[in-house]
Each structure stands twice: as C-alpha cells, then as structure tokens.
Amino acid sequence: MKKLIILLSLLLPAVSYAAEVIADEGGESALRFYEPIQPVIEKGDVVNSDMMPPVFHEKDLLPIVSHLMTPGKIDIPSRMRNDGKVKMPGMQPLCLIGDDALSEDWFRQKLPELKKIAATCLVVNVQQYERLQQLRNIDNSIPLLPVSADDLAKRLKIVHYPVLITDRGIEQ
C-alpha cells in the first residue's frame, strides 16, 4: 500500500502540468480557406435547408402518417383493458384518431365522454389541412393535434385506431 501511495505521489506532478501550446498563429479565422470550396448560391436559394421558415403554419406539418397504425378494431391485451386494473395516475386522457370515416364516427359517438374527461386527441393519420379542420369543426372544445403516433403504438402495442387511452387503460 505504501508503494502505491509513493508511486501516485511521484506521478501526480507529471499529470498536473498545463497543456503546452505548440503553435499560435494569431487566431486568424480559417474561413477564407473554405470559401472557395463552398457551392455557388444563386439568388432565391435557401441558404440553410434545415432552417425553419420565418412564419410556421400547421399546414407545414402535413401530411401526418403513422406507419404502425391503421383504422380498425383492436384486440386490447388484458393487461391494458380499461377495467380499472391498470393504474397510470396522472395520465392525461388521449384519443388517437385518423381522418377516415371510422375515426370520425367513433369521435362523434365518444364526444360526450371525451368532453367529460377533458381528453386531447391526436390525429395520427391526416393528409390535408382541410380535413383536419373538418374534424376540428365537429367540436372545437377538444384539442386535435396532428402527430405521428408510431412510438406510442410501439410502446402500447396498438396496431389500430381509433382508441382512447386513460389512466385506467385502453378502450375502443
């Protein structure tokens, strides 16, 4: 043990030295060396294609496609049924719908319950902004958000919509 302490005390000064700058040419920017190899930018070209437009509209999100979900009836696993056995306290009620006829009929039928529990609906498949607005016009008091739900579908093992997800489970 003494040998280890002696060895560490001898090596400590060796690792405590500051880094030595080998060359400092004055901090001149290297940008001028890269400018000649940049692509030519014409007038009207987007300078940064990843840049968000100055005015962002919900239309820019569409179409929304959830690749792992389709409209249809689901077989809810017993561990996730809305029978009071599942407990997810604090879970905000969510409904997943699409812009198809089955989802619209389900949404109209479940409207009183969705209002009562203050659910937020995710529109997981919608092609056009006009169709999203038609769904919103059914009832403006329930928020309808265009969002892909592939991650949610994978985690909850849901393959079809429309569904209602609450703190007690999943139901259709």
Please give the number of β-strands.
7
Question: What gap, in angstroms, lies between the N and C termini?
Answer: 68 Å
Helix share bin: 25-40%
The gross shape turns out to be flat
Oligomer: single chain
* N to C succession of SSEs: HHEEHEHEHEEE
Q: What percent strand? A: 5-15%
Rounded to the nearest angstrom, the radius of gyration is 29 Å
Protein name: Integrating conjugative element protein, PFL_4695 family
Keywords: Signal
InterPro entries: Integr_conj_element_PFL4695
Pfam families: DUF2859 (PF11072)
Descriptive account of the structure:
The structure is a single chain. By secondary structure, the protein is α/β, with parallel strands linked by helices. It has a domain at 58-171: Glutaredoxin (3-Layer(aba) Sandwich). Helix content is 30%, strand content 15%. The chain contains five helices and seven strands. It has helices spanning 2-15, 31-34, 101-116, 129-138, 150-156, and strands at residues 70-71, 94-98, 120-125, 144-146, 160-161, 163-166, 169-171. The strands form two sheets. A five-stranded mixed β-sheet has the order 4-3-2-6-7, with helices on one face. Strands 1-5 form a two-stranded parallel ribbon. Helix 3 (101-116) links the parallel strand 2 and strand 3. The longest helix has 16 residues, at 101-116. It is flat. The relative contact order is 0.19.
In short:
The protein is an alpha/beta fold. Helix content is 30%, strand content 15%.
